[in-house]
Amino acid sequence: MSISLQTVTIRFSEMKDAAHLMELDDLVWDRNTAPEPLHWTSRDNYLLHCPPGSQLVAVNGDDVCGYVGFCAPTGLESNSHVYELNIAIHPSYQRSGIGRRLIQAVQDMARLEGKTKLRLRVLSCNPGAIAFYKACGFQEEGRLVQEFFVDGRYVDDILMSYFI
After folding, report:
1. Is the pLDDT assigned to residue 77 strictly greater than 70?
2. Which region holds residue 42: left if phi is over 0, alpha if psi is between -120 and 50, else beta?
3. Which of 36, 62, 68, 90 is the most buried (most CB within 10 A)?
4. Which residues, listed in sequence order, are joined to residue 153 by a DSSP beta bridge?
5. For the packed helices 127-135 and 98-112, what is the interaxial angle rounded to 10 degrees?
6. What is the secondary structure of 20-71 as a DSSP string?
7. Total Cβ atoms within 10 A of residue 35
8. Which ranges carry the N-acetyltransferase domain (predicted)?
9. Summary count for the chain: helices (H), strands (E)
10. 117 near 162, Cβ under 8 Å?
11. pTM higher than 0.90 for the full model?
């Protein structure tokens, strides 16, 4: 799908986005992108884990194109300078620049909030995502070797970070 990035708006997630974001998770998180497919059991369960405002959402008109979720990795004050990220782009909007805009938006937001590190996890069987994160300035910080057994093979869990 060809779109103009000028028509895409990035904003904080809202209650009205829940159904679209649940559908997006169902589309994106499969055996190549997550240790197990992600299926929310209910809207309430989704909102418990992803409350409004915990994601930056890219929208094109009424379409939710993608999101980047951010949260503190722990409740510890000594870890409060870090955001853990997760990002999903609707398959129809992948490779259109939306992912890069979302990463830039969360980097800008984190900088304004005084965060100094962004981190994420990606499976070694997802070379496209790894290349994307590297192109956005993330670097491999660690690797949990053979952390998951997915579809008959062991898969590494790669820890990546971006320092602001």
Report:
1. yes
2. beta
3. 68
4. 150
5. 50
6. HHHHHHHHH-STTTSSS----S-HHHHHHHS-TTSEEEEEETTEEEEEEEEE
7. 15
8. 8-164
9. 4, 7
10. yes
11. yes
Q: For residue 126, what is the domain's CATH number?
A: 3.40.630.30
- Domain carrying residue 152: 5-163
The yes-or-no verdict on residue 2 having pLDDT over 60 is no
Q: Are 125 and 32 in contact (CB under 8 A)?
A: yes
Kindly write down the DSSP assignment for every residue of 75-128, as one continuous string: S-GGGTTEEEEEEEE-GGGTTSSHHHHHHHHHHHHHHHTT--EEEEEEETT-HH
Structure tokens at 150: 């997915």
CB atoms within 10 A of CB 34: 19
Which amino acid, one-letter code, is at 133?
Y
State the Cα–Cα distance between residues 108 and 156, nearest whole angstrom: 30
Q: 9-67 pLDDT, tens per residue? A: 999 999 999 999 999 999 999 888 999 888 899 999 999 999 999 999 999 988 999 99
d(CA 107, CA 116): 9
